[in-house]
Structure formats: structure tokens, C-alpha cells
TrEMBL record:
InterPro entries: DUF2442. It comes from the Bacteria. This is DUF2442 domain-containing protein. It holds the Pfam family DUF2442.
């Protein structure tokens, strides 16, 4: 597939539109809070726990410390981890691929979140577990 001048102009326009919502001018990892902190050209700062982002979840402190900003300011890259995040996606709460995000959501779905749920689960366990479903025939 050959790129035309028109294709390049269209891509440039899409990038400028994305940049109009803000782009990174600095990024760092704060060891004390365990967060990646991004400063946008608008003055807004975004901070998120590193373990929320795909590719960063099991990274060491030294690996997280080295962050590169893409030339357009729309992406961050961790060279030691070969991991990337896309800032427009981060602004929308998307921290990885659909598959990765779905796996994270699924793993948290069955966790005990409230004391009432924990008590009910223990009570249910004492009774032999969740009652079996019975088939009802017509």
C-alpha cells in the first residue's frame, strides 16, 4: 500500500485534533506514591498507579524510572520494559488492550469487597457452600 500526500495530511490532521485535548510535556515515576505522573501542556497533571497499566504491572523501580515521551506527546514509552501507554486512552480510563483490561476486570469480580459479603460467604461455607441449582421441569 502506497501512502499519498493526501493520506499524510489526513494523518497530520487527526494527530493535531488529538493534541488539542492535551499532550504530555513531562512524565516521571514517583517512587513514594508508586504512581506515574504526567504533566500536560494544559497544566493538568494525571497520576495513576503503575500497576494499572499493561506492561508496567510487575515492573521494578529502576525500570519505571526511565520514561520517554513520543515526539507528538501522545504516548509514553518505557525502553527497559518495551511498554507503551497512549495518553488519549489513559484520559478515557483505558490502561491496556481489551483482552488485558477484561482479564483485570474478571479477576476483581469475584473478590470479597464488603464485610457483609465476607460474612455471607463464611456463613454459606459453614452450611456446605452455595446451594445447588435444581432443574425445574415443565
Amino acid at each position: 500500500m502506497e501512502l499519498t500526500e493526501q493520506d499524510l495530511q489526513a494523518a497530520e490532521q487527526r494527530m493535531q485534533k488529538l493534541r488539542s485535548n492535551g499532550y504530555a510535556v513531562s512524565a516521571r515515576y514517583d517512587r513514594r506514591s508508586g504512581r506515574v505522573i504526567i504533566e500536560l501542556n494544559t497544566g493538568v497533571q494525571i497520576a495513576f498507579p503503575a500497576e494499572l497499566a499493561e506492561g508496567l504491572e510487575n515492573a521494578g523501580l529502576e525500570d519505571l524510572a526511565e520514561i520517554e515521551i513520543s515526539p507528538a506527546g501522545l504516548g509514553l514509552h518505557w525502553p527497559k520494559l518495551d511498554a507503551d501507554v497512549y495518553i488519549p486512552a489513559i484520559l478515557q480510563g483505558v490502561f491496556g488492550s481489551k483482552t488485558w483490561m477484561a482479564a483485570r476486570l474478571g479477576s476483581s469480580g469475584g473478590k470479597v469487597r464488603t464485610e457483609a459479603k465476607a460474612i455471607a460467604a463464611r456463613e454459606n461455607g459453614r452450611k456446605g457452600g452455595r446451594p445447588r441449582k435444581t432443574a425445574t421441569g415443565s
